[in-house]
Amino acid sequence: IKSTIFKVIVETEKLVEVSFSRPWDPSLKGKFVPLNIDKRFILLRGCSGFYTYAIYEHMGSQEWQAFSLGETRVAFKLTKDKFRYMAVGDDRRRYMPLPDDRQSDRGQPLAYPEAVLLVNPVEPEFKGEVDDKYQYTCENRNLKVHGWISNDPSIGFWQITPSDEFRTGGPLKQNLCSHVGPTCLAVFVGAHYAGDDLVPKFGQGEPWKKVFGPVFIYLNSVFDGQDPLSLWDDAKR
Questions:
Q1: Cβ distance 231 to 222 under 8 Å?
Q2: Residue 1 pLDDT more than 80?
Q3: Which residues pair with 170 in a beta bridge?
Q4: Tens digits of per-residue pLDDT, 208-224?
Q5: Which of 92, 101, 188, 217 could form a disulfide with 121 if both were Cys (CB 3.0 to 4.6 A apart)?
Q6: CA geometry: angle at 104 spanning 103 and 107, to 5°?
Q7: 233: which residues sit within 8 A by CB, 6+ positions away?
Q8: Beta carbons of 185 and 212 less than 8 angstroms apart
């Protein structure tokens, strides 16, 4: 979503909140979903990270066409040569293949595009594995912290979600989180594992407004000589 308006919402010695918004009007019909979208970012002094959330609004005017919201999310794409270790849970954390391994000269697509057999990966240790982002989905109730670790430098990039109340589907709904890319997602609305029944639908001129988030992006690090994998334990605290 490319924003067209930038605004400082709050600016104090301890906090800055900024807005990147994209208003909708009838001239954009057929080009963009009929929503006013306001993306917010909050920085706190002394805090190792930032908060982000979004405000979506569909106005109660007949000029605002009907639509459905099949998926919306925040996505972070990290540097593939740095962030190689992924963690979505104590029992699901490991070094990951490169996105290059999914290309046609290194991987063999299987029954659906997301599943790829790694036949000639950059690193031979991954040969014979199947990479599939759906292997790493997580129920909303357990989707509290996930992310990636870089060994050089030793930095962690984590997404922390204090509450899943803003997500569709309830606590047992599965959602994507982190997967090869390296990609780190905060899914607000998604039809995966549920289908069209969970897709919000709005009529022409139907008023609707919702806040998605916040989620916290936490960055941590360790000194040279310390174990980078300890960053996962720190992120869970």
A1: yes
A2: no
A3: none
A4: 999 999 999 999 999 99
A5: 101
A6: 75
A7: none
A8: no
Please check whether residue 56 is in contact with residue 37, taking contact to mean a CB–CB distance below 8 angstroms. Answer: yes
Q: What is the mean pLDDT of residues 34-57?
A: 97
Q: How many other C-beta atoms are found inside a 10 Å radius of the C-beta of residue 182?
A: 25
Per the prediction, the chain carries an average pLDDT of 95
HSE at residue 231, side-chain half, CA atoms within 13 A, is: 30
Please tell me the pTM assigned to this model: 0.94
- Asked if 220 and 152 touch (Cβ cutoff 8 Å), the reply is no
Structurally, the chain folds into a number of domains equal to 1
Domain CATH for 141? 2.70.98.10
Q: How many residues does the chain have?
A: 237
Instruction: Look up residue 135 and give its amino acid.
Output: Q
- Written as six digits, the tokens of 89 are 């849970």
* Residue located via tokens 């916290």: 216
Instruction: Read off the pLDDT of residues 133-144 as tens digits, 9 standing for 90 and up.
Output: 999 999 999 999
Domain that holds residue 89: 5-236
Per the CB < 8 A criterion, the answer to whether 191 and 116 are in contact is no
How far is residue 219's CA from residue 5's CA, in Å, rounded to a whole number? 28
CA distance 121 to 116: 11
User: And the tokens for 230?
Assistant: 């300890």
